[in-house]
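<context>
A single protein, sequence plus fold
<sample>
Here is the protein in question:
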Amino acid sequence: MLTIGLLGGMSWESSAEYYRLANELVRDRLGGLHSARLLLYSVDFAEIAELQAAGRWDDAAEILAAAAKALETAGADLLLLCTNTMHKVAGRIQGAVGVPMLHIADTAAAAVRGAGLTTVGLLATAFTMEQDFYRDHLARHGLTLLVPDEADRALVHRVIYDELCRGIVREESRAAYRDVIARLVGRGAQGVILGCTEIELLIGPEDSAVPVFPTTRLHVEAAVDRALS
């Protein structure tokens, strides 16, 4: 079994899901007392969030590249960056290490294409919904991405940072997200990518009339496949 390096803490709420899912998947596939071989580097999210808000992406990339190097030095055979938003600097991080880093958008795109869909909605942070890095990556897989309107983007972003990243799950926010999803479906979305790792704490298949694609779970599944191959 290969050792998976988790570059997490953004937020720790979703990184805990990465840890849980990896261990559950290995247990289910190998049976008995098997669990995943994992290394976790958890950053201080407040520091990263401040750099995001200030547009200092290069500075954030330096922090994460150093963390990736530390995971490689500690023995990680492959890396997962446990956040969608910071894949904006995925190239910088991958360039700092010699082991592969599985890109979260690649795993999401593979699932969408595997379901036979081409047009999907995206729920994510404002950075991910409004900047080109995620859309362009999915476009290279032949996918068309729909994002919510301005008011809905603000709502989705606020719930992520003010609630989900703090471990707060509210029924009112779940209902609001359901409405956002319904509006995306009304515009032609055949499915919805849950493009922020915390959103899976709030939204599941039962909240959408079309398939949802949980990026955290898909990311971990791809890593476990690689680790056990």
Summary: The chain has a mean pLDDT of 97. The first strand starts at residue 4 and ends at 8. The CA atoms of residues 4 and 38 lie 5 Å apart.
